[in-house]
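lol so apparently i was supposed to do this last week
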Amino acid sequence: MTQARLTVLSGPSGVGKGSLVRVVREQHPQVWLSVSVTTRAPRPGETDGVEYRFVDQAEFDRMAAAGELLEHDAHMGASYGTPRGPVEEQLAAGNPVLLEIDLMGARQVRAAMPDAQLVFLAPPSFDELARRLVGRGTEDPAKVRVRLDRARIEMAAEDEFDVVVVNDDLEAAAARLVALMELSTD
Ligand code: 5GP
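anyway here it is w/ guanosine-5'-monophosphate bound
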């Protein structure tokens, strides 16, 4: 039996959350991934409504004030939030729901929905995470430093999560997450 459940995936920037979610959804298309709203500008290749819903600050603030966001947080000067309605609809329809959000967001979901399962994706080591972030080559050194400082803080909070999955091997980590979400394998 597939159990409808809310799973929150968090972890430091660069740890591979995006790749992990992609693998799990390729194997299990029934997993519904929340599309966050954000005030940051779209990156090349991103489409409104797919990776994010891109909104201006006024619309974001309106949604937050109206209680339309399950959680929200600011990150690198932009606001991010999870629209509440679609999450509740998917859970009510019996679909497994996955949120890929940051630590502050995970804490808010825990408070709002105590039954949610909180999964922390950890790098094999801090040095390995630093290597991955530098190797990505998409950010200037000052921004990499900010991300690493934030990663250190996030990694110190892994005890707050129900489960820690170490991303040393993408397929193995995906299998772990599939098991945690109790997804049927047919
Ligand atoms: P990026 O701008 O690189 O796509 O995401 C930056 C950070 O924002 C990532 O750590 C990501 O997990 C987090 N994030 C994305 N969407 C949300 C959201 O809806 N809520 C919260 N709290 N964090 C989010």
